[in-house]
Amino acid sequence: MPQFFLNKRLIILLISIIVLVALVGFSLRDRENASWPEQFVKDVVGFGENIVAKPTSFVSGVFGGVADLKNTYTENQHLKERLEELAQLESEVADLKKENKDLKESLDITDSIRDFDPLNASVISRNPTNWNDQVEIDKGSSDGVKPDMAVTTPSGLIGRVTTTGAKSATVELLTSSDVKNRVSAKVQGDENAFGIINGYDSDTKLLELKQLPYDMKFKKGQKVVTSGLGGKFPAGIFIGTIEKVETDKMGLSQTAFIKPGADMYDLNHVTVLKRSAEAGTTADDTSSSDTTGGN
């Protein structure tokens, strides 16, 4: 009898294993529709996931919104600080502009490069017999060009307009042999030194900066720019650099020999500096009273 029940249990176990294997095989085969047990299990699991997912998504959204709100608040605070800094900076700039204007008026210096509008021009002719003296450009009085306007290249000052036609103008170069060709200049340094560009050595290809103080020390490579004291040229236009300095025969002043920044030998495109409308005509009215006699 016990042997019978043991065999019966073994048979039931084998049948259960066979049925389970059959169900597994049936579930793993390719088919479009799931069996009802699979559908039941999937529906129950999906319903549970949906119940858990919605509150989780809501909580995540709330915390995400709080984080975004905090970031927005922080950014707004930074922007407010920047706006306050900008307002302060604008106030300081306005004060500096006024201070600069007052200083220029007290020094009787009304010209700066900002007071002039650039007019690009091309060199159209150059006489071989006076190569170092002058060039002709393709801009004239109809373009607003007038005598005594400064003419430059990106490398520095080259000269000034002397005469104008309707569509052309003559430019006298810094290297001109004309003794009346004078430009007020200054040597930049810890203490500025003022003098006059007047003369050119064609052998050394150096300009002569005369009437420098006899007791000042100069170094090779110091920059020389327009001083603006002549009333015609804006201050700060680069002219060249010092190559050497000599004391005059009387020992009362020094002469510096300047290497021009611009290539005077090969000129093709130049820029005429026209006085802007905002600058007014004050400097033009006072230019003739310049004590140095330069531009």
Automatic annotation (TrEMBL):
Record has Coiled coil as a keyword: yes
Source species, domain of life: Bacteria
Residue ranges annotated for the Rod shape-determining protein MreC beta-barrel core domain, each copy included: 123-274
Coiled-coil portions: 66-106
Keyword annotations of the record: Cell shape, Coiled coil
Alphabetical list of InterPro entries matching this protein: Cell/Rod_1, Cell/Rod_MreC_2, MreC, MreC_beta-barrel_core
GO biological process, one term: regulation of cell shape
Cellular component GO terms held in the UniProt record: plasma membrane
Similarity field: Belongs to the MreC family.
NCBIfam families: mreC
Function: Involved in formation and maintenance of cell shape.
Name this polypeptide is given: Cell shape-determining protein MreC
Organism for this UniProt entry: Listeria farberi
Phylogenetic lineage: Bacteria, Bacillati, Bacillota, Bacilli, Bacillales
